[in-house]
Design brief:
The structure is a single chain. The chain has helices at about 5-15, 15-25, 30-35, 45-55. The chain is mainly alpha-helical. α2 crosses α3 and α3 crosses α4. The termini are close together.
């Protein structure tokens, strides 16, 4: 999934990125930075955000 697809899915659910961040225990700014490519999400909190959002495969799983 791309960040654009993720954003469209949230819009279809009537949620904002901030709401999703709050529901998943992430800082809003960090989520925005991952979705906009400022954080590359190779490791750490940014990677966890990308995995939870479906942008990256979880460790040990193959990307679809």
């Amino acid at each position: 999934m791309t960040s654009q697809t993720f954003k469209a899915r949230l819009r279809a659910q009537g949620k904002t990125i901030g709401q999703w961040a709050d529901e998943n225990g992430f800082k809003r700014l960090d989520v925005y930075r991952v979705l906009n490519g400022v954080y590359k999400a190779h490791y750490g909190q940014a990677h966890e955000i990308a995995v939870r959002a479906g942008l990256k495969a979880a460790p040990g799983q193959l990307a679809a």
